[in-house]
């Protein structure tokens, strides 16, 4: 959103992303996250559990918890898949859409040096997006296809994918 405004409407950059608009965007995103997380928790809480209470994960995620239930969990699995796809593909779709608009706007800039400056502004962010999304999506696909059988390996891939990008953020920027 920031780069879209900075590149497509540079003269209005100081007036478009106001504190109120940013607060509304942040409140909307947090509301969506809460809604995405509350339903799996409610449905997992309703399941009958009597087997092991040891969760095979480094954090108490939905999937490892509902797998401990002693009943049919196909609805929970579908809900978890829908939640994960929404949480991953929603922001990624927004990022790709905004960068498509940015690329079109940048190609209309006459000066090559200004094009390079605009692309350089976006390149660092795109690098971090790829560093985050590629391992997470790879782990999700490999986990769903049951190609990763080792829980420790799966946990390590997910942990690295959510730890490395924030660590690299100050270095890249």
UniProtKB/TrEMBL annotation:
Which residue range or ranges hold the G-protein coupled receptors family 1 profile domain? 1-173
* GO annotation, biological process: G protein-coupled receptor signaling pathway
Q: An example Gene Ontology cellular component term from the record?
A: membrane
What are the entry keywords? Membrane, Receptor, Transducer, Transmembrane, Transmembrane helix
Give the way it sits in the membrane.
Answer: Multi-pass membrane protein
- Record GO terms (molecular function): odorant binding; olfactory receptor activity
Q: Where in the cell is it found?
A: Membrane
Q: What is its main location?
A: membrane
The lineage's top-level taxon is: Eukaryota
Q: Which residues cross the membrane?
A: 22-45, 85-106, 118-141, 153-172
PANTHER family recorded: G_PROTEIN_RECEP_F1_2 DOMAIN-CONTAINING PROTEIN, ODORANT RECEPTOR-RELATED
Q: What is this protein called?
A: Olfactory receptor
Q: Which organism is it from?
A: Cyprinus carpio
């Amino acid at each position: 959103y920031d780069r879209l405004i900075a590149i497509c409407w540079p003269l209005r950059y100081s007036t478009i992303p106001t504190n109120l608009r940013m607060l509304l965007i942040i409140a909307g995103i947090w509301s969506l996250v809460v809604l995405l997380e509350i339903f799996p928790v409610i449905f997992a809480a309703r399941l009958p559990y009597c087997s092991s209470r040891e969760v095979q994960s480094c954090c108490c995620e939905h999937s490892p918890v509902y797998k401990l239930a002693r009943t049919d969990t196909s609805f929970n699995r579908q809900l978890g898949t829908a939640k994960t796809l929404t949480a991953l593909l929603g922001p990624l779709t927004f990022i790709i859409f905004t960068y498509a608009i940015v690329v079109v706007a940048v190609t209309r800039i006459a000066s090559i040096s200004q094009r390079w400056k605009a692309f350089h502004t976006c390149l660092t962010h795109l690098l971090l997006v790829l560093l985050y999304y590629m391992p997470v999506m790879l782990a999700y696909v490999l986990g769903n296809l049951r190609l990763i059988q080792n829980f420790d390996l799966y946990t390590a891939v997910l942990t690295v994918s959510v730890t490395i990008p924030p660590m690299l953020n100050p270095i890249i920027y």
